[in-house]
Amino acid sequence: MRMQQLTQKARQAAGALALLGIEEKNGALQAIRSAILASADAIEAANQADLARSQAEGLAAPLLKRLKFDSKKIAEVISGMDSLLGLPDPVGRTLLATQLDDGLDLYRVSCPIGVIGVIFESRPDALVQISTLALKSGNAVLLKGGSEALETNRVLARVIGEAAGQAGMPDGWITLLETRLDVRELLDQDESVDLLIPRGSNAFVRAIMDNTRIPVMGHADGVCHLYLDAAADPAMAIRLSLDSKTQYVAVCNAAETILVHQSLAGDFLDELAGALHSAGVTLLGCEQTCARLGCAKVDNWHTEYLDYTAAVKIVSSLDDAISHINRYGSHHTDAIVTADQAAASRFLRAVDSGNVFWNCSTRFSDGFRYGFGAEVGVSTSKLHARGPVGLEGLVTYQYRLLGHGQIVADYASGQARFRHQPSGEAYPLQDR
Amino acid sequence: MRMQQLTQKARQAAGALALLGIEEKNGALQAIRSAILASADAIEAANQADLARSQAEGLAAPLLKRLKFDSKKIAEVISGMDSLLGLPDPVGRTLLATQLDDGLDLYRVSCPIGVIGVIFESRPDALVQISTLALKSGNAVLLKGGSEALETNRVLARVIGEAAGQAGMPDGWITLLETRLDVRELLDQDESVDLLIPRGSNAFVRAIMDNTRIPVMGHADGVCHLYLDAAADPAMAIRLSLDSKTQYVAVCNAAETILVHQSLAGDFLDELAGALHSAGVTLLGCEQTCARLGCAKVDNWHTEYLDYTAAVKIVSSLDDAISHINRYGSHHTDAIVTADQAAASRFLRAVDSGNVFWNCSTRFSDGFRYGFGAEVGVSTSKLHARGPVGLEGLVTYQYRLLGHGQIVADYASGQARFRHQPSGEAYPLQDR
């Protein structure tokens, strides 16, 4: 009952948000920006409490690092908001315009999705990022963060909610959920929640999908591959292997598996292994790799190591590499290193992933690097939004048809005929 | 096990289809077109058997009409294929192009979704329509039609599959499913099926959503509204009411409920009721309507009558109308009749439906009338594709990044900087 009330209130808020213009939304973002800066001490104090509790509970060091929300993180979040403020309104864009007949004009216009539920991991900056993206795109949002970050999230949600409220945003546009029971109940609210965005492991995202009829845009594992083709430049192949694997190992777009064409399985393989070893990477391999390098065998090609570990497999052909990726990958980011354009073209077209790269590091798949200015995350779902998701991923569209009393009977009888002329015009009704 | 084999075969076929160019796909469509014409006698004979069996089993007349697949229907299907042949390739379109840096070019390119499961009602023409749309967009398809149309669907699927196979399409791109057990098993194949398109009642679509983690693009009920605003032109209001309600009552974009502003609840309401009565429409009403017109009360405002029945409700304001529509409608198609542009603008923006119209009939929401040239159906889902779904609804996109050995470490250290320049260029690698 409580959850139904919360989501229905969010639904009402979404109705009000959909009618706002960019000035009002940016005004609220400015107010949130100021409020976060003004509340920096309270936010850091809450985060200290979270850190102390989590440390006492034995949270692992990398997770503690992600939990930390200090003045440096606040500065990053503010800088993210500045770039968000500079982006155009994603709502009200004309995506298609067709004159169906004289005085009968069809427009496909972008509009908010409505109510979005987000379930995210420990980083508190995600709360600021996602709620401000939701506001700019006119969506109400229900957020459930990690329990480690409870105090930080509480302060952030309160500061954001109050500042936005004072700037005229409707009550209920942002709601912080705190328990697993909340999440379970949220999954049942398909009448008033339009989209769920879970960010976590594959198993977590699948568990969400199993228990809801709300559409899910998953942000799951990255089992990313780098394929070193027969025609790869050896120096480039080693440089890209190092960057893809080691530039930041704990992220989803780091490479987990390096596929090596069999023609490179001799001296080059030794050189590659040496370079990776020097960078601190432990190698696991297929039978042939292990025979040559004396490393341990790969246990499961589906594994996301998120660590200084790489799996190496010798493949017999380009198509063998493509098959391996489509079978074992997570459809996140996969790259080919080759000087052969035809091989690159085939790879990019045949690999069924959101991001497919030629001669560059897998680490480039990211909304900021792509120039989107803001990022919800990297979607591993195939529909609606795929790959890095910016503001565009938080809107949908409506068809709006403006007429002068036209009826279908006239077109059915042949008295009137459709013209179907692309008009290139922008949707004209911008009043509210 | 059998279903897993079928869907994995479809997945392999999808991999091959993704690599085909428009000439090959259009060649196969031409072959299918010829084969359907050459097999017209066999198709009609199978349909006669379906009709005879269904008549004996007491199938209702409107459903028998939908089941009928005679020379006229074949001609329609062929004409639909002709327009599909004329459409450009939906695959390989450049949707975004950004130069991230010198020699580091990002493209968002449309690509097939992969494997699509479609569960549709009795009309056998849907089988031809959907399978040819899937082929043109490079998708493999598993189809389950109504059991009434079993013989017709068998012949059609065989003729289409054989013709496409002879034209070089991969084995397994089209599969006809025949039993409910098949559908149940299909719902479990989330590893190899990318999208489900159920066409049927709301309850049917919800039942599908309850039992799968595959994304669902629902084609469900149309509880469409026509709102006659205070500033409506009376003659236009009556003309649009008649067309929206009676031009074809058995379809999803026919209006079910007419909302009337209270300022029109006097003489105009009598006139409207008279016009609808003359057209054979039975009226149901809210309390106030019933008091004036002496009609029966509406039982449930969620009802899709699909018949010569209309519900009439007096509303006190524009926002009252919007609230009613967002609460009781099915987010399909809703129209306002008004001379007041501000009222129209607010209505179009606040009504949360795939199609929102000003001063024209609800019956216009249709892929052919919109000029899409071909139609999967009208999606009542909010994400991926909304409203009439043409070829575009059967593709997704990939990000393709073409580099020259760039690594992220150089950008992280500040040695290199992103440029993020929109390039407007088309994706250059069109070889396969």
Low-confidence parts of chain A: none
CATH class of the largest domain in chain A: Alpha Beta
- Average pLDDT metric of chain A: 94
- Given helix and strand content, the structural type of chain A is alpha/beta
Tell me the name of the CATH homologous superfamily of the largest domain in chain A.
Aldehyde Dehydrogenase, Chain A, domain 1
Remind me, CATH topology of the largest domain in chain A?
Aldehyde Dehydrogenase, Chain A, domain 1
> Rg of chain A to the nearest angstrom?
25 Å
Q: Name the chain pair with the biggest interface and residue counts per chain.
A: A-B, 82 and 82 residues
Fraction of residues in H or I helices of chain A: 40-55%
CATH-level-2 architecture of the largest domain in chain A: 3-Layer(aba) Sandwich
Spatial arrangement of strands, main beta sheet of chain A = 10-9-11-8-7-12-13
Percent range for β-strand residues of chain A: 15-25%
Mass-distribution shape of chain A? globular
Distance between the termini of chain A: 33 Å
Q: For the report, how would you describe the main beta sheet of chain A?
A: 7 strands, parallel
- The oligomeric status of these chains comes to homodimer
Q: So how many helices of chain A?
A: 15
Strands of chain A, count: 17
Compute the number of structural domains of chain A: 2
